[in-house]
Amino acid sequence: MQGEVDRAKSLTQPQPGWIYVVVAVLSLLGLADAIYLTIEHITGQSVRCTIIAGCSEVLSSSYAVISGLPVAMIGAVAYFTVFSLAILYLFGYKFTQLLLLVLVGGMFIATLWFLYLQAVVIKAFCQFCLLSAAITILMAIFLFLVPRFLHKRR
Amino acid sequence: MKKILPFIIILVVLGVALGSAWYMQRSSTAPSKPPATTASANSSSTPLATAASNAVPGAEPAHKLGPDNAPVHLEEFGDFQCPPCGLFHPIVEEMKRQFGDQLQVTFREFPLAPAHQHAIAAASAAEAAGLQGKFWEMHDLLYEHQKDWKDEFDVRPIFEGYAKQIGINVDRYKQDVESDQVAKRITQDGNRGHSLGVKGTPTVFLNGREVPFESLPADKLKVLIQVELTSPSR
Fold it and tell me: So what's the ipTM on this one?
């Protein structure tokens, strides 16, 4: 029990800055990926089947839109927010740490949901969606697992 | 300075993000063909890009529905395994119902192999049925039952079932599916597509001009056909 509390505390203790540099860089990659997907979605490029890429059954599915907004666009906003919070943390605005944990935690859960949709419901994967999933999972690892590991070593 | 630096960084990233989004959006909606400079200049009145004039003819006789003297010719390059083509099928049906003899519809084979593993088999099935005069019946069945066969391992028995269903000679169909004649028709349609700059499916031409993909929903296509009907340039 005490161990759990310690571990939870380890997340909100001040963390080494390099973790946030890594998270900021990852979020920029995620932002670029999400912008690309958003534009593909809006211009309809992703909906047509092409010789090179085949079809994106994922992006043309009904799951690619949440109440009128493309999921990719929501993703772009989320990545941009992660970047902003990480940069603010690096410049001494320590209160952003908790916000970042909540946001990336939420993104991680959303990522699991989208992986499930692709694997089980749509039965097709989209490359750039998988790239985004990898980025979010990496961000979660750096924010949730790496601090525990560092804490243990101390 | 240190206090406002993070905000400057954030604003710069926001600016770059919005700028690149705007640039990508512009470049992907801009007409890709060189003669389109004139077409985009008056794009408000004629939203269709001009097609290449050096197009090769494609398989003859083509699969056409509607009179040759119809004022509007719609040519679809399609792949029976492509989901958006399957979604476009009822839209074409709706246009045929609404415009009747004013519209002639042509179907061209454009199977996206190897991305779609059964695309060529499906195109062959439709062409083989065509040799017995039942191309459109097979075309309709393939599109309407796309979900039933696209993930199957072996589609041949399914397509043979369709052949039986539309009442053609199944033994002859089985021979025709494998024939050079059918393969040649698919290649010829594909060559026509390539010469017109077709890169994906469905690609639709109205009176020889490519319809942008975002104009393929029924309501938008209807407007474009109406524009063609009233256009004095015909």
Answer: 0.81
